Amino acid sequence: MPTEQHINPLSDIEIARQAKMRPIQEIADKLGIEQEHVFPYGKHRAKIEREYLESLDDRPNGKLILVAGITPTAAGEGKTTTSVGLGDALTRIGEKATICLREPSLGPCFGMKGGAAGGGYAQVVPMEQINLHFNGDFHAISAAHNLLSAMVDNHIYWGNELEIDCRRVSWGRVVDMNDRALREITNGLGGAINGFPRIDHYDITVASEVMAIFCLANDLKDLQRRLGDIIVATTRKGKAVYARELKADGAMTTLLKDAIQPNLVQTMEGTPCFIHGGPFANIAHGCNSVIATKAALKHADYVITEAGFGADLGAEKFFNIKMRKSGLRPNAAVIVATIRALKMHGGVETKDLGEENLEALEIGFSNLKRHVTNTRKFGVPVLVALNRFNADSEAERELLLELCEKSGITAVESDHWAMGSEGSEALGHAVVKMIDEEPCEFEFLYNKQLSLWGKTRTIAQELYGAEDIIADKAVRTQFEKLQKTHGDLPICVAKTPLSFSTDPLLKNAPSGHVVPIREIRLSAGAGFVVVICGDIMTMPGLPRHPAAENIFVNEEGLVEGLF
After folding, report:
1. Which of 26, 39, 146, 394 could crosslink 22 through cysteines, CB 3.0-4.6 Å?
2. Looking at 274, 309, 453, 479, which residue is catalytic?
3. Cα–Cα distance, 59 to 34 (Å, whole number)
4. How far is Cα 222 from Cα 220, in angstroms, rounded to an integer?
5. Quick check: is 523 in a domain?
């Protein structure tokens, strides 16, 4: 039954302040990392020395567990919370476990979604610092990106030796905030002293190719190589202009040399957690850094990591991009679902979620079933974590478990939000059992020899349930040009996370729709091709009443309203 805390909870930030955090060196000691390799940022967070991590190549890896989710809804699914709860549960049952998460972006923190440190009694701490300016990594990424932007315009101003076509500068600017007014701008106004006026744009920092490179780089040398491979513009003759030609890659790497060292924090129960990097999965590849994941795998027997949004986006990119680029391989996957969210996919409005509705639950189950089916296509053992809410009725719980059993899906209820590891212990045992008994036969959804168009169509048909993909002649021509030069790269689809289709209002598990491709972009440094579908934005906007309206510092100097 739900605990009293689950029925009448404190806010996440109030719960986080109850945590008795251990000095960060004690957390490092759990992983066997000596003090000389730990660079503290205060008492409870630190970076781990890059050179030390690069010396561990011969050490065996632990088991890698991916946590993904069903298609997100306003009801919430609790993917990060479940990742934390699973990590704590594995620690509770005596396993050496570590968690790997993405860093929160300020855009969602002050917008609508809130932070990304978990919730309830399954959180990583210190919650305020993690959600706000965490160790400066995102600022370093923004600075590196915008340094390159400045060097592009500066090169043009001082004679344009590379003959950059000002009409074809593709490298914009970034800021880690939701600011729709910056989506399209004109810069260089104010006369000749300010340069040449041209149309420009801003993306949110998490959509930057620098963020993707930061998260896919294997080491500092690889980071600089990838940064140099960024294409910033083309010449009038159609020749690509690279960051290395502007001699920007060295300075950009310098700005990132400390940030690339992974951050170590802890859960409320003292389980080690690496939090590093943070691309969104709807507009980027949605996974934490390869460096942090490898660091965790060298220091623990079980590593729990998450991929953003639903498994159709986050898990697909984790498998097809992160695993392909890093050489790592997963051992298992967990799909997070809630009865509330499945009822929404079955047609229930948010205001009615507290009422029992077995019919809607059965309809919405199709969404969960498709995500499990999709994930199994990668040859990975899968189980479902049913994240409990106090409004879930006994009849609804029994029906969902029955639907899973009939579909051959192992489902485990978990109450980590209310009870911490005590509520997720069964989930921990189930994951260990699955890894021990079900061998992983991992395979990519497509091979690199398939055309870029064919890869995109495969994703749409196999994972989204689409009949086909479509694009106008200009976009098809872009595909054909990139096929000749970068046809072996994987695809990173940018689309709404709220539906298997490109229509955010089309819930559950639609089939037979067509996926319209609006644009295609080459991220040569990151090593993938971004296919932009539907009306997806790479610079979000704030809602009518952003979370920022309720965030303040109280008389005691403590942050209030952060969630």
Report:
1. 26
2. 309
3. 16
4. 5
5. yes
List the one residue out of 284, 282, 289 whose CA is nearest residue 303: 289
Write out the two tokens for 364: 């919405």
Give the residue from 105, 110, 112, 108 showing the smallest Cα distance to 74: 112
Compute the distance between CA of residue 214 and CA of residue 557 in angstroms, rounded to an integer. 34
Distance, in Å, from the CA atom of 147 to the CA atom of 141, rounded to the nearest integer, reads 10
**pLDDT tens, residue by residue, 289-325:** 999 999 999 999 999 999 999 999 999 999 999 999 9
Q: How long, in residues, is the chain? A: 563
| CATH, residue 526 | 3.10.410.10
Q: Is 102 a catalytic residue?
A: yes
The question of whether 239 is a catalytic residue gets the answer: no
Helix 209-216 and helix 220-228, axial crossing angle in degrees, nearest 10:
150
Strand 240-242 and strand 231-235: the pairing is: antiparallel
Active site residue 79: yes
Domain harbouring 28, CATH code = 3.40.50.300
Query: Do 49 and 177 lie in a common domain?
Result: no
Residue 81: active-site member: yes
Confidence of residue 9 (pLDDT cuts 50, 70, 90): low
Q: Is the peptide bond before 490 cis (omega within 30 degrees of 0)?
A: no
pLDDT over 90 at 144, yes or no: yes
| C-alpha to C-alpha distance for 109 and 104, rounded to whole angstroms | 7
Domain that holds residue 238: 137-255
Task: Report pLDDT for 8.
Answer: 44
